[in-house]
Protein backbone atom coordinates (compact mmCIF):
# COMPACT_ATOMS: atom_id res chain seq x y z
CA UNK A 1 0.00 0.00 0.00
CA UNK A 2 1.62 3.25 -1.02
CA UNK A 3 -1.18 5.76 -1.37
CA UNK A 4 -0.53 9.40 -0.64
CA UNK A 5 -2.44 10.63 2.41
CA UNK A 6 -1.32 14.24 2.27
CA UNK A 7 -0.27 15.89 -0.92
CA UNK A 8 0.76 19.51 -1.23
CA UNK A 9 1.66 21.15 -4.53
CA UNK A 10 2.92 24.68 -5.02
CA UNK A 11 1.29 25.92 -1.84
CA UNK A 12 1.62 29.68 -1.50
CA UNK A 13 0.48 31.71 1.47
CA UNK A 14 1.29 35.21 2.62
CA UNK A 15 0.08 37.40 5.45
CA UNK A 16 -0.69 40.96 4.40
CA UNK A 17 1.74 40.78 1.52
CA UNK A 18 4.50 39.09 3.51
CA UNK A 19 5.13 35.68 1.94
CA UNK A 20 5.39 32.80 4.41
CA UNK A 21 4.97 29.77 2.14
CA UNK A 22 6.43 30.35 -1.34
CA UNK A 23 5.61 27.12 -3.12
CA UNK A 24 5.60 24.15 -0.79
CA UNK A 25 5.63 20.66 -2.31
CA UNK A 26 5.17 17.77 0.05
CA UNK A 27 3.79 14.24 -0.07
CA UNK A 28 3.13 12.07 2.93
CA UNK A 29 2.49 8.42 2.31
CA UNK A 30 -0.46 6.86 4.12
CA UNK A 31 0.43 5.22 7.40
CA UNK A 32 3.75 6.99 7.81
CA UNK A 33 5.04 9.67 10.14
CA UNK A 34 6.54 12.75 8.56
CA UNK A 35 8.39 15.20 10.77
CA UNK A 36 8.42 18.77 9.55
CA UNK A 37 11.38 20.75 10.81
CA UNK A 38 11.98 24.45 10.50
CA UNK A 39 13.22 27.43 12.46
CA UNK A 40 10.80 29.61 14.42
CA UNK A 41 8.61 31.49 11.99
CA UNK A 42 9.43 29.17 9.09
CA UNK A 43 5.72 28.57 8.51
CA UNK A 44 5.16 25.12 9.99
CA UNK A 45 2.03 26.14 11.85
CA UNK A 46 0.78 28.01 8.80
CA UNK A 47 1.14 24.91 6.64
CA UNK A 48 -0.71 22.79 9.17
CA UNK A 49 -3.51 25.33 9.55
CA UNK A 50 -4.01 25.37 5.79
CA UNK A 51 -4.16 21.57 5.72
CA UNK A 52 -6.63 21.59 8.63
CA UNK A 53 -8.90 23.93 6.59
CA UNK A 54 -8.50 26.74 9.13
CA UNK A 55 -6.83 29.07 6.70
CA UNK A 56 -7.23 29.49 2.97
CA UNK A 57 -4.16 29.20 0.80
CA UNK A 58 -3.35 31.89 -1.76
CA UNK A 59 -2.30 29.36 -4.36
CA UNK A 60 -1.43 25.75 -5.04
CA UNK A 61 -3.39 22.58 -4.37
CA UNK A 62 -3.56 20.35 -1.34
CA UNK A 63 -5.40 17.15 -0.76
CA UNK A 64 -5.87 15.16 2.40
CA UNK A 65 -7.00 11.52 2.32
CA UNK A 66 -7.89 12.05 -1.31
CA UNK A 67 -10.07 15.13 -0.74
CA UNK A 68 -9.19 18.57 -2.06
CA UNK A 69 -9.03 20.99 0.86
CA UNK A 70 -10.85 23.82 -0.90
CA UNK A 71 -13.34 21.76 -2.88
CA UNK A 72 -14.34 19.35 -0.16
CA UNK A 73 -13.26 20.72 3.23
CA UNK A 74 -15.94 18.73 5.06
CA UNK A 75 -14.46 15.40 3.96
CA UNK A 76 -11.02 16.68 4.94
CA UNK A 77 -12.33 17.56 8.40
CA UNK A 78 -13.89 14.14 8.74
CA UNK A 79 -10.70 12.37 7.80
CA UNK A 80 -8.25 14.45 9.79
CA UNK A 81 -7.69 15.88 13.21
CA UNK A 82 -5.55 18.68 14.60
CA UNK A 83 -3.58 19.13 17.78
CA UNK A 84 -2.57 22.76 17.52
CA UNK A 85 0.61 24.35 18.81
CA UNK A 86 -1.23 25.57 21.91
CA UNK A 87 -3.55 23.26 23.81
CA UNK A 88 -7.18 23.95 22.87
CA UNK A 89 -9.22 22.52 25.72
CA UNK A 90 -12.23 23.75 27.66
CA UNK A 91 -10.92 24.88 31.03
CA UNK A 92 -14.29 24.94 32.75
CA UNK A 93 -15.26 21.39 31.81
CA UNK A 94 -13.60 18.30 33.25
CA UNK A 95 -11.28 16.14 31.19
CA UNK A 96 -14.01 13.56 30.78
CA UNK A 97 -16.53 16.18 29.65
CA UNK A 98 -14.06 17.56 27.13
CA UNK A 99 -13.58 14.14 25.58
CA UNK A 100 -17.28 13.33 25.59
CA UNK A 101 -18.03 16.66 23.93
CA UNK A 102 -15.59 15.97 21.12
CA UNK A 103 -16.94 12.42 20.76
CA UNK A 104 -20.49 13.80 20.41
CA UNK A 105 -19.34 16.35 17.89
CA UNK A 106 -17.59 13.61 15.91
CA UNK A 107 -20.92 11.76 16.02
CA UNK A 108 -19.38 8.81 17.79
CA UNK A 109 -21.89 6.06 18.50
CA UNK A 110 -20.71 5.62 22.11
CA UNK A 111 -19.25 8.91 23.36
CA UNK A 112 -18.97 7.84 27.02
CA UNK A 113 -17.02 4.73 26.14
CA UNK A 114 -14.77 6.65 23.76
CA UNK A 115 -13.97 9.16 26.50
CA UNK A 116 -13.31 6.40 29.03
CA UNK A 117 -10.91 4.60 26.71
CA UNK A 118 -8.89 7.72 25.99
CA UNK A 119 -8.72 8.72 29.65
CA UNK A 120 -7.20 5.35 30.40
CA UNK A 121 -4.82 5.48 27.47
CA UNK A 122 -3.49 8.89 28.47
CA UNK A 123 -3.30 8.20 32.22
CA UNK A 124 -5.90 10.84 32.97
CA UNK A 125 -8.36 8.69 34.88
CA UNK A 126 -7.57 10.13 38.29
CA UNK A 127 -8.01 13.71 37.11
CA UNK A 128 -10.93 12.84 34.82
CA UNK A 129 -13.58 14.64 36.83
CA UNK A 130 -11.56 17.69 37.76
CA UNK A 131 -11.86 20.97 35.92
CA UNK A 132 -9.20 21.20 33.24
CA UNK A 133 -8.33 24.64 34.62
CA UNK A 134 -6.61 22.82 37.49
CA UNK A 135 -4.51 20.54 35.23
CA UNK A 136 -0.75 20.83 34.88
CA UNK A 137 0.67 21.80 31.50
CA UNK A 138 1.56 18.20 30.73
CA UNK A 139 -1.88 16.86 31.64
CA UNK A 140 -3.50 19.55 29.53
CA UNK A 141 -1.32 18.59 26.59
CA UNK A 142 -2.16 14.91 26.98
CA UNK A 143 -5.85 15.72 27.09
CA UNK A 144 -5.41 17.91 24.03
CA UNK A 145 -3.84 15.06 22.09
CA UNK A 146 -6.44 12.61 23.39
CA UNK A 147 -9.18 14.92 22.09
CA UNK A 148 -7.64 14.75 18.63
CA UNK A 149 -7.73 10.98 18.64
CA UNK A 150 -11.47 10.64 19.22
CA UNK A 151 -12.95 8.69 16.34
CA UNK A 152 -9.57 7.46 15.07
CA UNK A 153 -8.96 9.96 12.27
CA UNK A 154 -6.93 8.68 9.34
CA UNK A 155 -4.68 11.74 9.27
CA UNK A 156 -3.34 13.49 12.32
CA UNK A 157 -1.58 16.86 12.48
CA UNK A 158 0.49 17.38 15.59
CA UNK A 159 2.00 20.85 15.90
CA UNK A 160 4.82 20.62 18.45
CA UNK A 161 2.97 18.04 20.51
CA UNK A 162 5.66 17.54 23.14
CA UNK A 163 6.65 21.14 23.80
CA UNK A 164 6.39 21.73 27.53
CA UNK A 165 6.22 18.06 28.47
CA UNK A 166 8.64 16.46 30.92
CA UNK A 167 10.75 13.53 29.68
CA UNK A 168 8.24 10.97 30.94
CA UNK A 169 5.36 12.80 29.29
CA UNK A 170 7.32 13.06 26.09
CA UNK A 171 8.11 9.35 26.14
CA UNK A 172 4.39 8.65 26.58
CA UNK A 173 3.45 10.79 23.62
CA UNK A 174 6.14 9.15 21.52
CA UNK A 175 4.77 5.77 22.42
CA UNK A 176 1.29 6.87 21.44
CA UNK A 177 2.53 8.21 18.13
CA UNK A 178 4.34 4.99 17.38
CA UNK A 179 1.23 2.99 18.17
CA UNK A 180 -0.81 5.26 15.91
CA UNK A 181 1.64 4.86 13.07
CA UNK A 182 1.63 1.09 13.53
CA UNK A 183 -2.15 1.15 13.36
CA UNK A 184 -1.95 2.94 10.02
CA UNK A 185 -2.59 6.55 10.99
CA UNK A 186 -0.77 9.12 8.91
CA UNK A 187 0.97 11.64 11.14
CA UNK A 188 2.31 15.05 10.13
CA UNK A 189 4.37 16.22 13.05
CA UNK A 190 6.22 19.47 13.63
CA UNK A 191 8.81 19.65 16.33
CA UNK A 192 11.67 21.66 17.71
CA UNK A 193 13.26 18.51 19.13
CA UNK A 194 15.35 16.95 16.43
CA UNK A 195 15.70 13.86 18.55
CA UNK A 196 11.94 13.47 18.33
CA UNK A 197 12.14 13.47 14.55
CA UNK A 198 15.01 10.97 14.64
CA UNK A 199 13.06 8.67 16.93
CA UNK A 200 9.64 8.78 15.36
CA UNK A 201 9.67 9.87 11.78
CA UNK A 202 9.73 7.65 8.74
CA UNK A 203 10.66 10.70 6.73
CA UNK A 204 11.83 14.17 7.61
CA UNK A 205 11.20 17.40 5.72
CA UNK A 206 12.90 20.70 6.35
CA UNK A 207 10.94 23.90 5.71
CA UNK A 208 13.19 26.84 5.04
CA UNK A 209 12.50 30.24 3.49
CA UNK A 210 9.02 29.22 2.41
CA UNK A 211 9.98 26.01 0.61
CA UNK A 212 10.72 22.42 1.46
CA UNK A 213 14.49 22.33 1.36
CA UNK A 214 14.86 18.57 1.55
CA UNK A 215 12.78 15.50 2.30
CA UNK A 216 14.11 12.07 3.02
CA UNK A 217 14.71 9.39 5.58
CA UNK A 218 17.14 10.07 8.39
CA UNK A 219 19.81 8.10 6.52
CA UNK A 220 19.22 10.09 3.34
CA UNK A 221 19.59 13.35 5.23
CA UNK A 222 22.79 12.15 6.86
CA UNK A 223 24.16 11.35 3.45
CA UNK A 224 23.71 15.00 2.51
CA UNK A 225 26.33 16.19 4.94
CA UNK A 226 29.63 16.89 3.23
CA UNK A 227 31.94 13.92 3.93
CA UNK A 228 34.70 16.17 5.29
CA UNK A 229 32.46 17.21 8.13
CA UNK A 230 31.48 13.69 8.93
CA UNK A 231 35.10 12.72 9.40
CA UNK A 232 35.56 15.34 12.07
CA UNK A 233 32.78 13.94 14.19
CA UNK A 234 33.66 10.85 16.14
CA UNK A 235 30.18 9.43 16.49
CA UNK A 236 27.48 9.33 13.85
CA UNK A 237 26.45 12.96 13.21
CA UNK A 238 23.05 13.80 14.67
CA UNK A 239 20.14 15.25 12.78
CA UNK A 240 20.99 18.53 14.44
CA UNK A 241 24.24 18.76 12.50
CA UNK A 242 22.42 18.04 9.28
CA UNK A 243 19.70 20.58 10.07
CA UNK A 244 22.14 23.34 10.92
CA UNK A 245 24.38 22.62 7.95
CA UNK A 246 21.47 22.63 5.52
CA UNK A 247 19.62 25.68 6.75
CA UNK A 248 22.86 27.67 7.02
CA UNK A 249 24.11 26.61 3.61
CA UNK A 250 21.22 28.42 1.89
CA UNK A 251 18.63 26.76 -0.21
CA UNK A 252 19.96 26.72 -3.79
CA UNK A 253 22.85 24.25 -3.95
CA UNK A 254 21.53 21.80 -1.45
CA UNK A 255 18.16 21.52 -3.10
CA UNK A 256 19.83 20.65 -6.37
CA UNK A 257 21.99 18.01 -4.79
CA UNK A 258 19.08 15.85 -3.70
CA UNK B 1 -23.71 17.96 7.34
CA UNK B 2 -27.10 19.55 7.89
CA UNK B 3 -28.44 16.31 9.34
CA UNK B 4 -26.35 16.95 12.44
CA UNK B 5 -27.34 20.58 13.04
CA UNK B 6 -29.54 19.76 16.02
CA UNK B 7 -27.12 17.24 17.55
CA UNK B 8 -24.14 19.56 17.18
CA UNK B 9 -26.00 22.56 18.54
CA UNK B 10 -27.29 20.52 21.48
CA UNK B 11 -23.81 19.23 22.37
CA UNK B 12 -22.29 22.70 22.19
CA UNK B 13 -25.19 24.31 24.07
CA UNK B 14 -24.69 21.76 26.85
CA UNK B 15 -21.13 22.97 27.06
CA UNK B 16 -21.87 26.69 27.28
CA UNK B 17 -24.75 26.13 29.69
CA UNK B 18 -22.26 24.41 31.99
CA UNK B 19 -20.12 27.52 31.80
CA UNK B 20 -23.11 29.44 33.17
CA UNK B 21 -24.12 26.93 35.84
CA UNK B 22 -20.52 26.68 37.02
CA UNK B 23 -20.33 30.43 37.54
CA UNK B 24 -23.89 31.28 38.61
CA UNK B 25 -22.57 34.62 39.85
CA UNK B 26 -22.85 35.84 36.25
CA UNK B 27 -26.66 35.59 36.53
CA UNK B 28 -26.65 37.55 39.78
CA UNK B 29 -24.09 40.09 38.56
CA UNK B 30 -26.25 40.71 35.52
CA UNK B 31 -29.25 41.43 37.75
CA UNK B 32 -27.49 43.48 40.45
CA UNK B 33 -27.02 46.70 38.49
CA UNK B 34 -30.60 46.81 37.11
CA UNK B 35 -31.97 46.06 40.58
CA UNK B 36 -29.84 48.86 42.07
CA UNK B 37 -31.16 51.23 39.40
CA UNK B 38 -34.69 50.09 40.15
CA UNK B 39 -34.30 50.78 43.88
CA UNK B 40 -32.48 54.07 43.31
CA UNK B 41 -35.06 55.45 40.94
CA UNK B 42 -38.11 54.19 42.80
CA UNK B 43 -37.06 55.18 46.32
CA UNK B 44 -34.71 58.12 45.78
CA UNK B 45 -35.38 59.90 42.51
CA UNK B 46 -38.84 58.65 41.59
CA UNK B 47 -40.69 61.02 43.89
CA UNK B 48 -39.51 63.96 41.80
CA UNK B 49 -40.47 62.41 38.47
CA UNK B 50 -43.94 63.03 37.17
CA UNK B 51 -44.93 60.24 34.84
CA UNK B 52 -48.65 60.85 34.95
CA UNK B 53 -49.20 57.24 35.99
CA UNK B 54 -50.13 56.12 39.48
CA UNK B 55 -47.08 53.99 40.31
CA UNK B 56 -43.50 54.81 39.30
CA UNK B 57 -42.42 51.14 39.61
CA UNK B 58 -44.96 50.22 36.98
CA UNK B 59 -43.60 52.98 34.76
CA UNK B 60 -39.94 52.13 35.30
CA UNK B 61 -39.81 48.35 35.24
CA UNK B 62 -39.91 47.78 31.45
CA UNK B 63 -36.84 49.97 30.97
CA UNK B 64 -35.00 48.16 33.75
CA UNK B 65 -35.78 44.84 32.07
CA UNK B 66 -34.12 46.13 28.90
CA UNK B 67 -31.06 47.23 30.85
CA UNK B 68 -30.89 43.74 32.33
CA UNK B 69 -30.70 42.17 28.88
CA UNK B 70 -28.18 44.78 27.71
CA UNK B 71 -25.82 43.95 30.56
CA UNK B 72 -26.53 40.20 30.34
CA UNK B 73 -25.42 39.87 26.73
CA UNK B 74 -21.97 41.23 27.57
CA UNK B 75 -21.30 37.82 29.12
CA UNK B 76 -22.03 36.25 25.76
CA UNK B 77 -19.38 38.46 24.17
CA UNK B 78 -17.05 37.52 27.01
CA UNK B 79 -17.61 33.78 26.66
CA UNK B 80 -17.18 33.90 22.90
CA UNK B 81 -13.98 35.92 23.27
CA UNK B 82 -12.65 33.28 25.67
CA UNK B 83 -13.46 30.54 23.18
CA UNK B 84 -11.50 32.39 20.56
CA UNK B 85 -8.56 33.06 22.88
CA UNK B 86 -8.33 29.49 24.12
CA UNK B 87 -8.13 28.17 20.55
CA UNK B 88 -11.18 25.99 21.04
CA UNK B 89 -13.00 27.73 18.20
CA UNK B 90 -10.20 26.63 15.90
CA UNK B 91 -10.51 23.11 17.23
CA UNK B 92 -14.24 23.11 16.45
CA UNK B 93 -13.68 24.68 13.06
CA UNK B 94 -11.23 21.94 12.11
CA UNK B 95 -13.89 19.32 12.89
CA UNK B 96 -16.86 18.24 10.75
CA UNK B 97 -19.33 20.36 12.74
CA UNK B 98 -22.18 22.40 11.32
CA UNK B 99 -20.67 25.85 11.00
CA UNK B 100 -23.40 27.82 12.74
CA UNK B 101 -23.79 25.37 15.65
CA UNK B 102 -21.29 27.08 17.94
CA UNK B 103 -22.89 30.51 17.50
CA UNK B 104 -26.35 29.10 18.08
CA UNK B 105 -25.10 27.39 21.23
CA UNK B 106 -23.97 30.76 22.54
CA UNK B 107 -27.28 32.34 21.54
CA UNK B 108 -29.39 29.68 23.28
CA UNK B 109 -27.24 29.94 26.38
CA UNK B 110 -27.63 33.71 26.36
CA UNK B 111 -31.41 33.40 26.14
CA UNK B 112 -31.47 31.01 29.10
CA UNK B 113 -29.13 33.08 31.27
CA UNK B 114 -30.96 36.31 30.49
CA UNK B 115 -34.33 34.72 31.24
CA UNK B 116 -33.06 33.82 34.73
CA UNK B 117 -31.70 37.33 35.34
CA UNK B 118 -34.98 38.85 34.10
CA UNK B 119 -36.95 36.67 36.53
CA UNK B 120 -34.71 37.88 39.37
CA UNK B 121 -35.31 41.54 38.47
CA UNK B 122 -39.02 40.90 38.04
CA UNK B 123 -39.18 39.27 41.48
CA UNK B 124 -37.56 42.31 43.10
CA UNK B 125 -39.98 44.52 41.18
CA UNK B 126 -42.94 42.58 42.56
CA UNK B 127 -41.50 42.87 46.07
CA UNK B 128 -41.34 46.65 45.88
CA UNK B 129 -44.80 47.13 44.51
CA UNK B 130 -44.83 46.36 40.78
CA UNK B 131 -48.41 45.35 39.97
CA UNK B 132 -48.90 44.17 36.38
CA UNK B 133 -52.43 44.08 35.03
CA UNK B 134 -51.63 42.03 31.95
CA UNK B 135 -53.80 39.10 30.88
CA UNK B 136 -52.39 35.82 29.54
CA UNK B 137 -52.26 37.07 25.95
CA UNK B 138 -50.46 40.26 26.97
CA UNK B 139 -47.96 38.24 29.04
CA UNK B 140 -47.24 36.07 26.03
CA UNK B 141 -46.61 39.23 24.03
CA UNK B 142 -44.29 40.54 26.78
CA UNK B 143 -42.31 37.29 26.81
CA UNK B 144 -42.20 37.26 23.02
CA UNK B 145 -40.93 40.82 22.79
CA UNK B 146 -38.30 40.27 25.51
CA UNK B 147 -37.18 37.15 23.67
CA UNK B 148 -36.87 39.10 20.45
CA UNK B 149 -34.88 41.83 22.22
CA UNK B 150 -32.59 39.24 23.83
CA UNK B 151 -31.99 37.48 20.52
CA UNK B 152 -31.23 40.80 18.84
CA UNK B 153 -28.81 42.04 21.49
CA UNK B 154 -27.14 38.63 21.71
CA UNK B 155 -26.35 38.62 17.99
CA UNK B 156 -25.10 42.18 18.38
CA UNK B 157 -22.86 40.98 21.25
CA UNK B 158 -21.38 38.19 19.15
CA UNK B 159 -19.75 40.71 16.83
CA UNK B 160 -17.44 42.30 19.45
CA UNK B 161 -16.93 38.86 21.00
CA UNK B 162 -15.40 37.69 17.72
CA UNK B 163 -13.58 40.93 16.91
CA UNK B 164 -12.14 41.95 20.27
CA UNK B 165 -8.45 41.72 21.02
CA UNK B 166 -8.85 42.16 24.80
CA UNK B 167 -11.40 41.03 27.37
CA UNK B 168 -12.38 44.64 28.07
CA UNK B 169 -12.89 45.26 24.38
CA UNK B 170 -15.24 42.30 24.22
CA UNK B 171 -17.69 43.71 26.74
CA UNK B 172 -17.24 47.47 26.28
CA UNK B 173 -19.93 47.54 23.58
CA UNK B 174 -22.60 47.02 26.22
CA UNK B 175 -22.02 50.41 27.91
CA UNK B 176 -23.77 52.43 25.20
CA UNK B 177 -26.53 49.80 25.14
CA UNK B 178 -27.04 50.27 28.87
CA UNK B 179 -27.03 54.06 28.53
CA UNK B 180 -29.46 54.18 25.63
CA UNK B 181 -32.53 53.67 27.88
CA UNK B 182 -31.61 56.86 29.79
CA UNK B 183 -32.27 58.89 26.64
CA UNK B 184 -35.66 57.31 26.06
CA UNK B 185 -39.03 57.13 27.72
CA UNK B 186 -37.71 54.45 30.09
CA UNK B 187 -37.08 56.70 33.12
CA UNK B 188 -38.95 59.92 32.36
CA UNK B 189 -41.59 60.77 29.76
CA UNK B 190 -40.00 62.25 26.66
CA UNK B 191 -42.29 65.27 26.88
CA UNK B 192 -40.05 66.74 29.59
CA UNK B 193 -36.93 66.71 27.38
CA UNK B 194 -35.55 69.64 25.32
CA UNK B 195 -36.58 69.47 21.66
CA UNK B 196 -33.45 67.92 20.02
CA UNK B 197 -33.04 65.31 22.77
CA UNK B 198 -36.71 64.59 22.62
CA UNK B 199 -36.52 64.09 18.87
CA UNK B 200 -33.78 61.49 19.36
CA UNK B 201 -35.52 59.84 22.31
CA UNK B 202 -38.80 59.44 20.49
CA UNK B 203 -37.22 57.86 17.46
CA UNK B 204 -34.81 55.41 19.02
CA UNK B 205 -35.77 51.77 19.51
CA UNK B 206 -35.74 51.75 23.32
CA UNK B 207 -38.70 54.13 23.52
CA UNK B 208 -40.78 52.00 21.17
CA UNK B 209 -39.91 48.80 23.03
CA UNK B 210 -40.40 50.26 26.49
CA UNK B 211 -43.71 51.90 25.58
CA UNK B 212 -44.97 48.61 24.18
CA UNK B 213 -43.88 46.59 27.22
CA UNK B 214 -45.39 49.18 29.55
CA UNK B 215 -48.74 49.14 27.79
CA UNK B 216 -48.81 45.33 27.68
CA UNK B 217 -47.94 44.99 31.37
CA UNK B 218 -50.57 47.56 32.30
CA UNK B 219 -53.15 45.63 30.34
CA UNK B 220 -53.68 48.53 27.96
CA UNK B 221 -53.78 48.62 24.15
CA UNK B 222 -50.28 48.96 22.66
CA UNK B 223 -51.25 51.71 20.21
CA UNK B 224 -48.61 52.47 17.60
CA UNK B 225 -45.41 51.49 19.38
CA UNK B 226 -45.40 47.73 18.80
CA UNK B 227 -44.67 47.80 15.07
CA UNK B 228 -41.68 50.12 15.29
CA UNK B 229 -40.46 48.01 18.26
CA UNK B 230 -40.65 44.80 16.24
CA UNK B 231 -39.26 46.42 13.12
CA UNK B 232 -36.23 47.83 14.97
CA UNK B 233 -35.46 44.47 16.58
CA UNK B 234 -35.97 42.47 13.41
CA UNK B 235 -33.84 44.88 11.38
CA UNK B 236 -30.94 44.96 13.82
CA UNK B 237 -31.23 41.21 14.36
CA UNK B 238 -30.89 40.43 10.67
CA UNK B 239 -27.94 42.80 10.18
CA UNK B 240 -26.11 41.62 13.32
CA UNK B 241 -26.63 37.98 12.42
CA UNK B 242 -25.34 38.40 8.89
CA UNK B 243 -22.27 40.26 10.14
CA UNK B 244 -21.64 37.77 12.96
CA UNK B 245 -21.88 34.70 10.74
CA UNK B 246 -19.60 36.32 8.21
CA UNK B 247 -17.02 37.20 10.84
CA UNK B 248 -17.21 33.69 12.22
CA UNK B 249 -16.61 32.14 8.81
CA UNK B 250 -13.39 34.04 8.35
CA UNK B 251 -12.44 34.16 12.03
CA UNK B 252 -9.39 32.15 11.11
CA UNK B 253 -7.05 35.12 10.86
N1 LIG C 1 -2.26 35.56 11.54
C1 LIG C 1 -1.08 36.02 11.14
N2 LIG C 1 -0.96 37.29 10.70
C2 LIG C 1 0.23 37.77 10.28
N3 LIG C 1 1.37 37.05 10.25
C3 LIG C 1 1.31 35.79 10.68
C4 LIG C 1 0.09 35.21 11.15
N4 LIG C 1 0.34 33.93 11.51
C5 LIG C 1 1.66 33.74 11.28
N5 LIG C 1 2.25 34.84 10.78
C6 LIG C 1 3.66 34.97 10.38
O1 LIG C 1 3.97 33.93 9.50
C7 LIG C 1 5.25 33.41 9.75
C8 LIG C 1 5.17 31.92 9.98
O2 LIG C 1 4.47 31.65 11.18
P1 LIG C 1 4.22 30.19 11.71
O3 LIG C 1 3.48 30.32 12.98
O4 LIG C 1 3.59 29.39 10.63
O5 LIG C 1 5.70 29.67 11.98
P2 LIG C 1 6.19 28.36 12.71
O6 LIG C 1 7.12 27.69 11.79
O7 LIG C 1 5.05 27.58 13.19
O8 LIG C 1 6.99 28.99 13.93
P3 LIG C 1 7.20 28.41 15.43
O9 LIG C 1 8.27 27.41 15.35
O10 LIG C 1 7.64 29.62 16.19
O11 LIG C 1 5.89 27.89 15.89
C9 LIG C 1 5.79 34.19 10.96
O12 LIG C 1 6.66 35.19 10.48
C10 LIG C 1 4.58 34.79 11.58
O13 LIG C 1 4.87 36.02 12.18
MG1 LIG D 1 4.36 27.01 14.99
Strand content of chain B: under 5%
Q: Reading side by side through the largest sheet of chain A, how are the strands ordered?
A: 6-7-8-3-9-10
CATH architecture of chain A: 3-Layer(aba) Sandwich
What's the SSE pattern of chain B? Answer: HHHHHHHHHHH
- Unreliable parts of chain B: none
The structural domain count of chain B equals 1
Shape type of chain B: elongated
Number of helices of chain A: 11
Question: Roughly what percent helix of chain A?
Answer: 40-55%
| Secondary structure category of chain A | alpha/beta
- The CATH superfamily of chain A is identified as P-loop containing nucleotide triphosphate hydrolases
Tell me what you see in this structure.
The complex is a heterodimer of chains A (258) and B (253). With 258 residues, chain A is an alpha/beta fold. Chain A has helices at 44-51, 73-79, 95-105, 111-121, 137-149, 167-182, 194-200, 218-224, 227-232, 239-249, 251-257, and strands spanning 4-15, 18-29, 33-37, 59-64, 67-68, 80-83, 155-159, 186-190, 203-208, 211-216. In chain A, 40% of the residues lie in helices and 24% in strands. In chain A, a hairpin with a 2-residue loop joins strand 1 (4-15) and strand 2 (18-29). Chain A is globular and about 55 Å long. The two termini of chain A are 25 Å apart. Chain B is mainly alpha-helical and 253 residues long. Chain B contains eleven helices and no strands. Chain B has helices spanning 5-21, 25-45, 56-85, 88-93, 101-127, 136-163, 167-172, 174-179, 195-203, 205-217, 226-249. The radius of gyration of chain B is 19 Å and the shape is elongated. Chain A binds chain B through residues 49, 52-56, 74, 77-78, 80-82, 84, 86-93, 97, 101-102, 104-107, 147, and chain B through 1, 4, 7-8, 11-12, 14-15, 18-19, 22-23, 86-88, 90-97, 252-253. The complex binds adenosine-5'-triphosphate and magnesium ion. Adenosine-5'-triphosphate binds next to helix 1 of chain A.
